[in-house]
């Protein structure tokens, strides 16, 4: 059942293995169930924390408001990133979790990037699928050593290649260990994404 506690409707699946919990963040029009199968596939046994985006755009859940395709409401991005960081802290206390890795797709990847830049304590790292720059003027963050896997689509009609490359450069300049790959295909995910995420998780997800 969806759980409306802690400020976000969400699903929580307890972990069964000594691996990082995953914070699963769906794309526009998705919900808290969308990325559970991907999370189970790429990090078997990980605790899964999956909130539903609290903003509705024509009935479609999102994690922050946008003014048009690719044009974001910066004040709302900041507000919603703070809310999501607060949710992560509350969920960690409730469920007894170490800091999670985010696994976000599209709008979910964009809010994950905003949380990393604005609330770096909330996440130990992130997998950003089809992400773009969430803010035009983020303050410098300290992401020293945080692992980030960014997977973009070579023919993505929503995310311009230079925008994705700019986000990768921004995260790297903040100290993150960024691995950015541009895969064949568009905005949707493919088996190539799953294969890359699995290999990255094998290195980054085990708890010390
Ligand atoms: C966004 O609005 O975050 C991006 O344009 C991706 C999308 O959700 O379509």
Number of strands: 11
Classify the helix fraction into a percent range: 25-40%
| Largest sheet data | 7 strands, mixed
Structure classification? alpha/beta
Strand order within the widest sheet?
1-3-2-8-9-10-11
Distinct small molecules bound, one entry per kind: D-malate
Overall average pLDDT: 96
CATH topology category name: Rossmann fold
Whole-number radius of gyration? 15 Å
Question: What CATH architecture would you give?
Answer: 3-Layer(aba) Sandwich
**Helix tally?**
5
End-to-end Cα distance, whole Å, is: 32 Å
Strand content: 15-25%
List SSEs in N-to-C order. EEHEEEEEHEHEEHEH
What does this entry show, briefly?
By secondary structure, this protein is of the alpha/beta class. The chain contains five helices and eleven strands. Helices cover about 35% and strands about 25% of the residues.
């Amino acid at each position: 059942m969806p759980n409306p506690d802690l400020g976000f409707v969400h699903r929580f699946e307890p972990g069964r293995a000594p691996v990082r919990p995953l914070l699963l963040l769906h794309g526009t029009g998705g919900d808290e169930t969308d990325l559970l199968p991907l999370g189970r596939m790429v990090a078997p046994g990980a605790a899964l924390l999956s909130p539903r985006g609290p903003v509705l755009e024509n009935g479609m859940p999102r994690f922050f408001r946008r003014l048009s395709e690719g044009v974001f409401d910066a004040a709302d991005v900041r507000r919603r990133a703070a809310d999501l960081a607060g949710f992560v802290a509350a969920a960690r206390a409730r469920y007894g979790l170490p800091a999670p890795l985010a696994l976000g797709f599209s709008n979910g990847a964009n809010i994950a990037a905003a949380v990393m830049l604005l609330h770096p304590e909330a996440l130990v790292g992130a997998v950003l699928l089809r992400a773009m720059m969430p803010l035009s003027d983020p303050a410098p963050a300290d992401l020293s050593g945080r692992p980030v896997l960014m997977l973009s689509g070579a023919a993505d009609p929503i995310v311009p290649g230079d925008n994705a490359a700019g986000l990768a450069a921004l995260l790297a300049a903040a100290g993150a260990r960024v691995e950015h790959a541009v895969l064949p295909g568009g905005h949707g995910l493919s088996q190539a994404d799953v294969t890359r995420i699995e290999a990255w998780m094998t290195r980054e997800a085990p708890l010390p």
